[in-house]
Amino acid sequence: MAGQLRVHLGAAPGVGKTYKMLEEGHRRRERGTDVVVGYVETHGREQTEAMIADLEVLPRRTVTYRGATFTEMDVEAVLERGAEVVLVDELAHTNVPGSRNAKRWQDIEELLDAGMTVLTTVNVQHLESINDIVRQITGVPQRETVPDEVVRRAEAIELVDMAPEAIRRRMAHGNIYRPEKIDAALGNYFRVGNLTALRELALLWLADKVDDELSSYRAAQGISETWEARERVVVALTGGPEGETLIRRAARLASRSRGADLLAVHVARNDGLSSSGGSHAHLVAQRTLVEDLGGTYHQVVGNDIPRSLLAFARGVNATELVLGVSRRSRLQSLFSPGVGVTTTNGAGSMDVHLMTHGQVRQGRALPKVENALGRNRRIYGFVLATLGIGVLTLLLTQLRDRISLDSDVLLYLAAVVVVALVGGLWPALVAALLGTFLLNFYFAPPIHEVTIASGENILALAVFLVVGVAVSATVDRAARRTREAASAQAEAETLSTLAGHVLRGAEPLSALLDQLRETFGLNGATLLQRRPDAAPSPDLQHDPESWEVVASVGRTLRTPGAGDAEVLVDEKVSLALCGHPLAAEDRRVVQAFAAQAVVAMRQQQLSEQAAAAGPLAEVDRMRTALLSAVSHDLRTPLAAAKAAVGGLRAPGVEFSAEDQAELLASVEESLDRLTRLVENLLDMSRLQAGALAMHPQPTSIAETVAISLDEIGSPGERIAVHLPEEFLEVTGDPVLIERVLVNLLRNALRYSPPESPPMVTVSAHAGVVEVKVIDRGPGIPSEKWDDVFLPFQRLGDRDNGTGVGLGLALSRGLTEAMGGSLVPETTPGGGLTMVMTLRQAGARRPDEDAPVGALSRGGT
Fold first, then answer.
1. Which of 196, 294, 579, 832 could tie 523 with a disulfide, CB 3.0–4.6 Å?
2. What is the DSSP letter of 272?
3. Does residue 589 or residue 427 have the better pLDDT?
4. 238 - beta bridge partners?
5. Whole-model pTM?
6. Where are the transmembrane segments (predicted)?
7. Quick one: DSSP state of residue 146?
8. For the chain, which domains are there?
């Protein structure tokens, strides 16, 4: 059997939690209970140490971590001791790495599983659910937390409370912290405002725990009456326009009732076929209002609205229930007492407030009866009711001597059922009345008189009339329910499709509006948003200057009031529709479309903002990388050149001709490097801006390769070149092609080992010329090929001669600007091959829409 947990909860350090726990331990020991101290932290407080002196204290376990020594509760020793009650301080404590459990509350759970009763302590700031609130209040993050559920499972929670002034006096007297920490603590964490807020948090958290216990007790004891232990005001919403008035009055009522809780509830019919005439848009706005006023919104499902409303109110232990006076007319009230009266009669001890509002008595005089079978079937029913009953009468008059009156009644009843099946209620009523008259006139003695001689015949005709009317009403009701069920199914399928609809393509909002238009057969659907700078207008719904079109399909409307129907999503967004007015039963589905359209609009706006921020972020990243790279790579040649020039100009130093030539060569080399870096930066800037000047023309690839090798100088003598025998020309800018080749060759030289120099091969096929720069260096993994073309990125260690990482990025950009491609390949046997592809002069692409890089490439 698991043991019991008792928690002493404090609002702040120093309120006396540990002292209270030790007091309880002493009381239990005096009653003969076996009590031990598993772990108690005294923090050097004399009163706490005195309380421990005469209790059995179990030894702690020593743990070494990162060269330091710590002590923790020895769980194994406590389990071996097997006491009835164990005192364990600081429930939220984090154990030193290497301990049996990560958290002390996990240690305590082991003790509970062993059947021991544990007394422990915790401060409210260590509870997981309010840890962030405490940080906002005090500005001090609490890294040690305990899950709320661990504390809520305790058999008893005792709040150890103390006024803020008393805590500060204890602090000032040195009863909480050491003297050197007192001033800082009083000026920061232990301020009166902080302590007051923490105290309120502790009271509210414990009040919720007590409320849960009360609800559990009431449920276990089957108590349905309201216990006014805590004021709760429930306001019932129908979705009508009167809801906001009821919410505000209920909020004022709650504020006067010692800050009672405010709960709003809407009862949705569970048959899915009828509604209270409410509007989804009204409910959305009313839910927002309730939450703004500090209340909560709830929705329950039930067919019996008064019963469902009372069940919810009793379930939350409500003390007051706010209802609106019925919107129904006096004539409607004659047929049913209404929700207000029924709820009041069943409320018991709960107070019910019936609030007046502007919609009182604004309902319809009588419920509208609709025929469920359509106009054509109703016409067929009337025809059948008159002609069919007449034909049946002619037939039965010929058989009057052979068939009894009872059989005549049954046949007429069958005819009424047939008419009801064909035409519904009203044709069947006509058939029943006409059949009653004809039965009386032609078949009930005395014949051909509107009188009845026998009481049995009177009963038969009366039963026929009642049964005929009942059957007619039943058939009509079944037809109506069938139509409503089909409508509800179609509505559910539409909403299900809308809920699971994956918006694909570049214009998800337009796709959604197009689906709305197709679903309801509209000519146009326009989502409008009120302009932020729109001035208040008396005719806002028809003022084009106040609205802007977000998205539209079909006919575009410039104002919400310009169409046949309007769905107001909120005060700033409206959905305007044209084509035909919306049926009342369609508005709920359209409202769902409108809500989804607003979500799509927000997503589209966020996507646009993200797209706009993307280039800015890229520019910022480039700028940061550029500053990082330039700070080193541009400084290096400048420093070398400055040092050489400074040496030449140094007074009193004479250099030989060879030394002067060497220094001048160093200056020239440094300035050349600096020139290349600046040129690369400028070219990359022009590429990104689309302002790079190009002069494409037929260019000899062999001549360009030779010029590139001359540009490299003596290191280029190591490079092996394999050119085809035929004369090849490519279409491109010769200067840019040379720039690309120089960058590729220098890169290959940098990574090729001395014994395996780079190689250049040139080949032509399918109208393109491929120039491959092959090295036998370490190579690059294929998953990182794209990374080498990013500006200011470099794989491997950095040295003073690698540049700012623009070489390959610039080379690919220049190649693609000339209509070619630059891609890496793995060199057989190890290394990297850079393949530059350009269109052969005079050749046409097989597919003008395909990039050159998509053409086939040959091997080395």
1. 579
2. S
3. 427
4. none
5. 0.36
6. 379-397, 409-438, 458-475
7. B
8. 5-209 (3.40.50.300), 232-355 (3.40.50.620), 375-479 (no CATH), 694-854 (3.30.565.10)
